[in-house]
Amino acid sequence: MDAKEKLRRYLEQRRELGETELALDGLTVDDALRILGANAGAQSARPPAATAPKQGAPMPRATETAGAPDIADWRDALRQAGASPDTMAAKKPSVVEPRATAREAAASPAASSKPAPPAPQAPTETIEISDIPAGLSVGTAAGELFGGEMGTLRTLEEIAAHVASCTRCPLYSTATNPVPGEGSATADFMCVGEAPGATEDETGRPFVGAAGQLLTKILAAIELRREDVYIVNVLKHRPPGNRNPRPEEVQACSPYLIRQIELIRPKVILALGTFAAQTLLETKLSIGKLRNQIHRYYGVPLIVTYHPAALLRNPSWKRPAWEDVKLARRILDNSSPTSAGA
Ligand code: URA
Predict the structure, then answer these.
(1) Half-sphere exposure in the Cβ direction for 279 (13 Å, CA)
(2) CB-based burial of residue 309 (10 Å sphere; 0-12 exposed, 13-18 middle, 19+ buried)?
(3) Less Cβ around it within 10 Å: N or C end of the chain?
(4) Whose CA is closest to 290, among 269, 311, 309?
(5) CA–CA separation, 127 vs 210, rounded Å?
(6) Quick check: CB of 233 below 6 Å from ligand 1?
(7) Is 199 touching ligand 1 by the criterion CB < 6 Å?
(8) Angle between helix 247-264 and helix 156-164 axes, rounded to 10 deg
């Protein structure tokens, strides 16, 4: 495939995901000039960094992503993408903390093992949480019982046992293990992904493959330990070959997720990727349209961000994803005084 074709597919993929702006941060100058037909005089034979999968083909999950960058540190990964946590606020007039918190300090280069250049003293434009637009709202007030088919299941263990013998859709017959979810039953912060991949299927644990390792680092960057949050997927069994979940599978499986949210009653939900966001918010809107808003799921604030597997494929999304997770953390901090502990 020539470079022009690669660029076309890449742009189409981004448009499908609702992106309207493009930062060509994955291309070298020579690459871009070559694609445009100019004589780049390139010494480098490097292809464009981001190439889209074949059109119409399912997106590989991170567990199957060949050549995924070896991200040793979330902050390093952000810097590689041209967006360090400390300088982000200066680059984008988005969610900016009014003052440095212990969490921000921890996410700053000073807390990293590698020395980093000092953050530029740029003017900051503070956007309060109250200025972030309200998004979609599913259900009514917090505290309302969601009801639903799984309303008789009283604990997360009961849900897990039910999932283990579930035959509501055919996925149980091809999966190795059910992946009901894991974490603290009293978590204030809940992450919702799409479906188990190969590593999750082997282990019965959510987000333990390459995307999961990135998620763990993202959580650490906002001072949350995996064991203190609840991590779950829309689907509890792996779709064969990591194909996209089918609507009937989502419909069959989502009562478990709804009951998990109802039992945990988190203070914030972070929806990772299109399927989680669209399922919970009962919408077909793209990620691009759902980000930067505070949605409500039965009163619980819900933030939408890119799936970690998508971040592995498209490092340029790490910057906006960092904004999303910072916003989620701020909402957590601003919830009740008892809730914000990491
Ligand atoms: N992707 C998901 O959506 N969930 C997992 O558990 C792993 C990868």
Answers:
(1) 29
(2) buried
(3) N
(4) 269
(5) 33
(6) yes
(7) no
(8) 160
CA nearest to 68, candidates 86, 46, 82, 50? 50
Q: Give residue 298 CA to ligand 1 midpoint distance, Å.
A: 24
Distance of CA 309 to the CA centre of its chain: 8
Q: Which of 200, 237, 238, 275, when mutated, tests ligand 1's pocket best, judged by the most ligand atoms within 8 Å of its CB?
A: 200
d(CA 65, CA 93): 33
| Token code pair at residue 291 | 């980000």
Compute the distance between CA of residue 336 and CA of residue 313 in angstroms, rounded to an integer.
Answer: 36
Assign 149 to helix, strand or coil: coil
Q: Say which residue the tokens 């000073």 belong to.
A: 110
Residue type, 133: P
Tell me which of 1.10.10.10, 3.40.470.10, 2.60.120.10, 3.40.50.300 is the CATH number of domain 132-341: 3.40.470.10
**Domain boundaries defined on the chain:** 3-88, 132-341
Q: What's the CA gap between 151 and 259, in Å, rounded?
A: 7
Q: Going residue by residue through the chain (342 aa), what tens digit of pLDDT does each one get?
A: 666 666 666 655 555 555 555 545 455 545 555 555 655 444 333 333 333 333 333 333 433 333 333 334 444 544 454 444 443 333 333 333 332 333 333 333 333 333 333 333 444 455 789 899 999 999 986 566 777 889 999 999 999 999 999 999 999 999 999 999 999 999 999 999 999 999 999 999 999 999 999 999 999 999 999 999 999 999 999 999 999 999 999 999 999 999 999 999 999 999 999 999 999 999 999 999 999 999 999 999 999 999 999 999 999 999 999 999 999 999 999 997 654 444
| Cβ(207) – ligand 1 distance below 6 Å | yes
